């Protein structure tokens, strides 16, 4: 069995009331694909290193969330929030006539997967969550700043006095993106996120600026307290759920323990791995290790059609790779 090719894709534009959702459909286009959703301020290029490591019987539809990559921006006066982003999942399902969805999400994309699965568990058959489960706790200072910035942007749009954002040379761009990611993405890997979010400067011909909607920097995210998180996890009953954490990343913290324990309880389809020295963008800098966990998981829960593969005597899905954990009494126990 081979692997997907990064050059074998169909560019898609999914119509939505405010414009379109841009995406790339890799691999098999005859069967329902896995829907892959990127993180905040990123775009579908975040999966560039993971896609070529996935089995070629699959289809994977990677999308740019509204205001990101090459997807349409919201209309003036409309705010970006996690509620609107969650709604993208059923919109895509409706466009293609899917009754079920398989999800891979990084960061914000993983949060959206968790929320949507809790709202419509009967429509979700598999989730892969990359270095996230619950959103970070809402900070009152962030909320205050977000409202202030949103009002400023509304006024600027109304007056039509948007100026060109800061622009950079190609050499500078990688360093700027790396700094913005708190060095989770190295300057060398930044190219995977840059190619879908740059516009050539009209003021400085040798420079480029980030074309994502400036308003997404101050989007409103939901505050899920511990009780709500536990109840949401209980609605996702015995679903195939794979979580991969970067050991250096703070995004899966102790506050996630109860929800993870609930997801794992009496669930043979739950898996958790930790990537040693992994940052938040583990799927970019440690794509091979992530794939070593993701591929067996997908092959087990989204196997190829019987006509496209042969059974061998060896079942790699039964292995327990380095970093495998089970959850007992809210604590990780390495096997």
Give an overview of the whole structure.
- By secondary structure, the chain is α/β, with parallel strands linked by helices.
- The chain has helices at residues 82-96, 108-119, 140-159, 170-180, 191-194, 226-235, 257-264, 282-285, 287-301; strands at residues 9-16, 19-27, 34-37, 59-63, 101-106, 124-130, 198-200, 208-210, 241-246, 270-275, 324-328, 331-334.
- The protein starts with 8 loop residues before the first strand and ends with a strand.
- The strands form 2 sheets. A 10-stranded mixed β-sheet has the order 1-2-4-3-5-6-9-10-11-12, sandwiched between helices. A two-stranded antiparallel sheet has the order 7-8.
- Helix 2 packs across helix 6 (226-235) and helix 6 (226-235) packs parallel to helix 7.
- Helix content is 30%, strand content 20%.
- The protein is globular and about 55 Å long.
- A hairpin with a 2-residue loop joins strand 11 and strand 12 (331-334).
TL;DR?
The chain is α/β, with parallel strands linked by helices and 335 residues long. The chain is 30% helix and 20% strand. The radius of gyration is 20 Å and the shape is globular.
């Amino acid at each position: 069995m081979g692997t997907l090719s990064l050059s074998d894709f169909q560019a898609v534009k999914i119509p939505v009331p405010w414009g379109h959702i841009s995406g790339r459909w890799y691999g098999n286009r005859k069967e329902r694909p896995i829907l892959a959703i990127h993180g905040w301020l990123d775009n579908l290029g975040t999966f560039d290193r993971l896609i070529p490591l996935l089995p070629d019987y699959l289809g994977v539809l990677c999308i740019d969330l509204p205001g990101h990559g090459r997807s349409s921006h919201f209309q003036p006066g409309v705010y970006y929030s996690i509620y609107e982003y969650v709604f993208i999942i059923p919109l895509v399902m409706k466009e293609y006539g899917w009754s079920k969805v398989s999800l891979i999400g990084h960061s914000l994309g993983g949060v959206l997967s968790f929320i949507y699965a809790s709202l419509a568990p009967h429509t979700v058959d598999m989730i892969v969550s990359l270095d996230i489960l619950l959103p970070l706790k809402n900070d009152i200072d962030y909320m205050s700043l977000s409202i202030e910035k949103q009002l400023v942007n509304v006024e600027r749009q109304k007056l039509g006095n948007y100026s060109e954002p800061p622009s950079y040379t190609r050499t500078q761009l990688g360093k700027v993106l790396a700094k913005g990611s708190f060095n989770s993405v190295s300057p060398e890997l930044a190219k995977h996120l840059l190619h879908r979010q740059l516009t050539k400067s009209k003021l400085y011909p040798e420079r480029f600026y980030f074309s994502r909607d400036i308003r997404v920097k101050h989007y409103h995210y939901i505050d899920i307290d511990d009780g709500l998180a536990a109840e949401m996890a209980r609605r996702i009953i015995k679903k195939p759920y794979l979580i991969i954490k970067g050991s250096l990343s703070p995004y899966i913290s102790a506050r996630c323990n109860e929800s993870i324990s609930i997801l794992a309880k009496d669930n043979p389809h739950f898996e958790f791995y930790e990537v040693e020295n992994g940052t938040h963008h583990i799927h970019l800098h440690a794509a091979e290790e992530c794939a070593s966990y993701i591929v067996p998981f997908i092959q087990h829960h989204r196997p190829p059609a019987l006509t496209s593969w042969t059974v061998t005597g060896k079942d790699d899905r039964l292995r327990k790779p380095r970093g495998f954990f089970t959850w007992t009494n809210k604590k990780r126990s390495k096997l």
